[in-house]
Amino acid sequence: xxxxxxxxxxxxxxxxxxxxxxxxxxxxxxxxxxxxxxxxxxxxxxxxxxxxxxxxxxxxxxxxxxxxxxxxxxxxxxxxxxxxxxxxxxxxxxxxxxxxxxxxxxxxxxxxxxxxxxxxxxxxxxxxxxxxxxxxxxxxxxxxxxxxxxxxxxxxxxxxxxxxxxxxxxxxxxxxxxxxxxxxxxxxxxxxxxxxxxxxxxxxxxxxxxxxxxxxxx
Length: 218
What we know:
single chain, mainly alpha, 3 domains, 0% strand, DnaG_primase
């Protein structure tokens, strides 16, 4: 961080993320952030507390209803693939074993977003060095949408008891959703009135093959 403004902005963004964690996790990350930025623990804790208080404040009823209506219009539900990717991210952040297995299976195949993929690669690299990933530092370098996805993934509070099974299940869900998307795209192409009978037959055979692959993932 080259100047005071960058240092402050980094600290604020990191505190915003840390505020979403459990008390034990917050304390550990505040200590890391203090060492990196030079701000005292008391200052960082106060910043985090102010963020949590702001999040807890409820707007007036009319404002709240308008906000909810706007959110329903603007925010589309996550696809099955996004939900599966987020679950895999969560397990990777909780377990070095899960991160290693996911890395061995190929992160480029598991995460469609380049930003999320780079975040996952950084997790694997940190564990390989024998380190705990510095999540606030990693998040500060991400695009807002990708950082929000990581934060959403952290809201899952289920413990990663069986990392190998958890990763396999997530990867299976990701593969199934990818196949389902391909099938849907081909079905839409079948509606093209200019297709010949031979082309339609090829598309139908492809759909059957993809369906067989999906059944094999069950």
